[in-house]
Amino acid sequence: MPDPRVEKLAKVLVSYSLSLQPGEEFVMSAPSLAEELSLAVYKEAVLAGAHVLAFNDLTGRDEIFFKYANDAQLDYDSPFDRFIVERYTASLYIGAPENTRALSGIDPARMARAGRAQAETRKLFQQRAARGELKWCYTIYPTHAGAQEADMSLSEYQDFVYGAGLLDLDDPVAAWRAEAERQRCLIRWLDGRDQVTIKGSNVDVRMSIKGRKFVESAGTHNFPSGEIFTGPVESSVEGWVRFSYPGIFGGQEIEDIELWFEEGKVVREKAAKGQELLTELLNTDAGSRFLGEWGIGTNYQIQRFTKNMLFDEKIGGTIHFAVGMGYPESGSQNESAIHWDMLCDMADSEVAIDGDLFYKNGQFVV
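-> C-alpha cells emitted (366 positions)
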C-alpha cells in the first residue's frame, strides 16, 4: 500500500524546497530503490510546468568505478556533468542506499584523486548556488540498508525519516517556514560579530567569524534540515576538539577522532580506529586541513545518531565542523576536493561570542 507521506514529501520538495516554476530546467538523480519517491517527484515537477531530466543512479556503479578505473579515468572531469551544472537551474538528488558499506574496501586515495578531478565542476556548482542561479536539494528515501545502519526496523526508520521532515503535520511547509524564521532570529543576533569561544568536555576551540555570514538551512537545500552554519576565518581556528560520534566517509567509520588546530590548520590528528584513513583524508589537498564550515544543529525532532549526516548534523544539541571546501555564500574562501562533516555533542558545553553567552548545554540562550 503506498505511503501517503511519500506523495506529501514530493509535493514539499517541488513546491517548497526547490520552488519549481513553469519552464524551469530541472535535473533529478536517484537510485532504483527510490523509484516510488522519484516518480512522485517527477509527477509534481511536470504538474509544476518544469522541463525534467531524470537519471537512474545505478546501484553498485561507484564500487565498480573505484575498483577498476585507471588513472586517466580517475582524473576525468565529465563535460556532460559540467554542462548540467552550467545549464540547469534546479537539481535534486535522492539517496537510497542498498549497501551503506559498498565502498568500505576502496582505497581512499583513489576516491580523493577522483574528487580532485571534479573540483572545478563542484566549485562551479557552489558558485552558481551562492549567486542564486541554481536551486539544489538532497533528500533520502528510507531503505533497509539505511534502517540497519540506524539500528531500526524499516517501519521505525520510515517514521523517523518522515517525522524529521515534519511530514506527519497537516502543513509541513508552514512548519518549515516557521523554523526558517527562528533561524533568521539567531542569525540576526550573530550578524557582525567576531570572536567565538567553544568550551566543554569535548571541545576547546577559539576562532573568528568576522566578515562571515551565517546561512539558514530550513528544508530547502537539505530535506529534512535544521541547522545554521558559516565558514570560519580560515587562519583563525585554534585549539582542540574530540568528535564524540564516529566520522563516516565512503561507508568507512573513523572512531574517536581528535583534531588539534594552530593558525587554522589541523596540525595533529588522532583516531582510535581508522587513523590511516583520517590522515589520508586530511592530506587530500592544501585546503583539506582547514575548516570550511562550522554548523549548529537546530532540529530537536532528531534525537538519535543514525550514521547518516543528512540527519546527524541537524541533531539539536550538537555542533559540527567540516574540513575542506566551504560554501561561498557563507564567505568561506577555503577550497578543497572534500567537504567532510564531523559531529560533536554539546550536552555539557557552551559557546560565547564576543564574550556574550550564545549557547549552553545544547540549547540556545539568546
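Residues 212 and 307 are 29 Å apart (CA to CA).
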